[in-house]
Amino acid sequence: MRKKGIIMKKIYALFMILVLSVSIVGLVGCSNNSKNNQENVEPDPVTPSPDANPENTNDANGNDTNDTREGKRDIIIGSKDFTESNIVAEIYCLALEENEFDVDRSYNIKNESIHDSITSDEIDIYPEYTSNALLTVLNESIKTDVDDVYNTVKDGFKKQYNLTVLDYAPVHDGPAFIMRADVAKKYNINNITELQAKASKLNFGYTGDFLDRDTGMSLIKSVYGDINFKTSTLYDSSNRFQLLDDGKVDVIDGYTTEGSLASDKYVVIKDDKSAWPPYNIVPVVRQSVLEEYPQIAEILNSVDKQLTTEVMRDLNNKVDNENKEVDAVAKEYFESIKGDIVIKD
After folding, report:
1. What is the CATH number of the domain that holds 122?
2. How do beta strands 281-286 and 163-165 pair?
3. Nearest in space to 201 (alpha carbons), one of 211, 182, 190, 187
4. 80 DSSP β-pair partners
């Protein structure tokens, strides 16, 4: 009987070992399966309650409900590589920033490259000149009526490039003959017809390709006939006004918004037969940007209304001759017109 009891104890011990082993294997298996499930199963998407995260102000479409303007993407403003374009672009930036837009600046793009910049979506907006757009972008022939030029450019940019040309500014920055005021008074010269009649007594200083380019002397001759100056000499553009001051020349070619013209010391000789085309400043905007933010049109149009030829001469003068910074000059001017600029709620 004692032997039989010992055998039964051994059998019971083996049975318990077997049961224990099976239990351990089962637990390990469950543990491994649980780990694999956590690693391989994507979590369910959860839309947090607005109350769960007080900083989350997006609506169901991902739009920021606390944002007072329509969208949040930065607007990129470009400019050409000269003072006036920089100033106008900076004023555009300030007007948009005043209306709670985020703005990036991309200035000093070469004239021949800026159109490609906007059509390739590198910039969203830039200030252009109507006849530059007409002649160099659309490759149209010269027109001299302000509205005709504007409408041709506006239609052409929309149809060919899906770009919107906003309202043109009063400012005209085009070619001109310039004289010292006292010399013009001495010879009683107010317009090009009178200049032509007295040209044989006057020394002319010209720059670059003025004699040959399509919008230079060749255009003037096609309308007025020959202008036979006493002398015609090529000079560097940087010292033209100094040449007038020193009496080395009596007439120079230039542009109607040059900073030095802010002084009464010089006068622009009137183009009495309207030979030269108009170069009014216009904001050019990508159509897709206006569709996203239509208020931009009203804001920039309200800026352009303020930009006259006299205003641009003064602003250019502060940068080019008084050596002030573009952003400071633009800021000072913007503050003076801010009350007339559309401010969107």
Report:
1. 3.40.190.10
2. antiparallel
3. 187
4. 109
Distance from C-alpha of 333 to C-alpha of 170, rounded to nearest angstrom: 17
One domain for residues 285 and 162: yes
Q: How many domains does the chain have?
A: 2
Length of the chain in terms of residues written: 345
Same domain? For 320 and 302 the reply is yes
Please say whether the beta carbons of 291 and 308 come within 8 A. Answer: no
Q: What is the pTM of this model?
A: 0.79
pLDDT 10s digits, 123-165: 999 999 999 999 999 999 999 999 999 999 999 999 999 999 9
Which tokens hold the place of 264? 């009464």
Q: Which residues pair with 125 in a beta bridge?
A: 77, 285
Q: What is the pLDDT of residues 59-110, one digit of tens each?
A: 333 334 333 334 557 999 999 999 999 999 999 999 999 999 999 999 999 9
Whether 216 and 244 have beta carbons less than 8 Å apart is answered as: no
Which structural domain, as residue segments, surrounds residue 242?
175-269
